[in-house]
Design goal:
This protein is mainly alpha-helical. The protein contains nine helices and six strands. Among the domains are: 86 residues; 108 residues, Cytochrome c-like domain (Cytochrome Bc1 Complex, Chain D, domain 2, Orthogonal Bundle). It is elongated. It starts with a helix and ends with a strand.
C-alpha cells in the first residue's frame, strides 16, 4: 500500500510541475489578448507553450520507460529463468555487429605495430543507419531550402529581419514624433524629413513668409533676427501656439507635433540663404547655441 501511495505522490508532483507553466502561459496569453504590455520578467506566451510541450513529451517518455520497466518485471515473474537475460541483448548485438572476443582471430589484419594487431570489424549498424539518415535529411534540407520556395536561407532570413526591424523603427519614430513638444524638441537632419518640412512650409507658411523665407506679411526667416526668439525650441513654440497679436494662427490643431518639428527644422536651414528681395530684419539678434540634433 505504501508503495502505491509513493507512486501516486510522484505522479501528482509531475502533474503539478506541468500545470504551473500552463497557468503562467494562460495568464500571459490573456494579457497579450487584452493588448496589455507584458510585465518585465514575464516570458513570452510562445516560449511558455514550447516549455509546456517539451515538458509533456518528457513526461510521456518517462511513462513509457516506466511501463517498459513494469513489463520487464512482469515477464521476469512469469518466466524466472529469463531474469538474467538482458531485455535488448539481441537488438544490441545486431546494432553493434561486433565479433565476439573469442572469435577475433578471424578478423585480424596484417597491420601490426609493437605487438598491437588491428581488427577488421564492421561499422556498427547504428552508426551506418545514422549516416544514411543524415544523407536523407541533407536531401530534404537541400530541396526544402533551395527548390521548394518555402525555406529561407540565412541571407533571406537576415534581410527579412532587417526589414521587420526597419518597420519597427518607423513605428517607433511615428510614436515618438507625436510626443514632441517645445521642451524636448530637437533639430532634425534627415534629408527626408527636412524635405517633408519644406513641403509643409510651402503649403502653409509661404503665403506670409515667402517661398524662400524672405518675408512678406510675416518676418524674414533667413537672417539672424527673430521677433519671438530663435533656435529650435522657440521656433517650434511659435509655430505651435502662434502669435495672435501679429495675425499668426496656432498650428497645433492642424499639424502634428512631428510635422511641426519638420517645419521648424526646415526653417532653421533657411539661415544665410540670401533670397531675392529679403524683408528688413526685425526683432533681436539670436546668438546660436550648440543645439542637440536628432539624427
Amino acid at each position: 500500500m505504501k508503495l502505491h501511495v509513493n507512486r501516486y505522490l510522484r505522479l501528482a508532483f509531475l502533474l503539478v510541475c506541468l500545470f504551473i507553466p500552463l497557468l503562467s502561459w494562460a495568464e500571459s496569453a490573456e494579457l497579450a489578448t487584452a493588448g496589455s504590455a507584458m510585465p518585465e520578467g514575464v516570458p513570452d506566451p510562445k516560449d511558455l507553450l514550447n516549455i509546456l510541450i517539451i515538458s509533456t513529451c518528457a513526461f510521456v517518455l518517462l511513462v513509457l520507460i516506466y511501463m517498459l520497466y513494469m513489463l520487464r518485471v512482469l515477464m521476469n515473474e512469469l518466466n524466472p529463468a529469463a531474469i538474467r537475460k538482458p531485455l535488448f541483448s539481441n537488438l544490441i548485438k545486431k546494432l553493434s555487429d561486433a565479433v565476439p572476443v573469442e572469435d577475433e582471430h578471424s578478423i585480424l589484419t596484417d597491420h601490426n605495430y609493437d605487438g598491437i594487431h588491428e581488427l577488421d570489424n564492421n561499422l556498427p549498424l547504428w552508426w551506418k543507419y545514422m549516416f544514411y539518415l543524415s544523407i536523407v535529411c541533407a536531401g530534404v534540407y537541400f530541396y526544402y531550402y533551395h527548390f521548394s520556395g518555402y525555406g529561407k536561407l540565412q541571407i533571406e532570413e537576415y534581410n527579412h529581419e532587417v526589414l521587420m526591424a526597419d518597420k519597427e523603427v518607423a513605428e517607433y519614430m511615428k510614436r515618438s514624433a507625436n510626443s514632441v513638444d517645445e521642451n524636448n524638441v530637437k533639430r532634425l537632419t534627415e534629408p527626408v524629413r527636412i524635405e517633408s518640412g519644406k513641403v509643409l512650409f510651402l503649403q502653409n507658411c509661404a503665403a506670409c513668409h515667402g517661398k524662400g523665407g524672405e518675408g512678406g506679411v510675416g518676418p524674414n526667416l533667413t537672417d539672424e533676427y527673430w521677433l519671438h526668439g530663435g533656435g529650435v525650441k522657440n521656433v517650434f513654440k511659435t509655430i505651435k501656439y502662434g502669435v495672435s497679436q501679429k495675425g499668426m494662427i496656432s498650428w497645433k490643431t492642424q499639424l502634428s507635433p512631428g510635422n511641426m518639428q519638420e517645419v521648424t527644422s526646415f526653417i532653421l536651414t533657411l539661415k544665410d540663404t540670401h533670397p531675392d528681395h529679403p524683408k528688413a530684419a526685425q526683432g533681436e539678434r539670436y546668438e546660436e547655441e550648440k543645439e542637440v540634433v536628432s539624427k
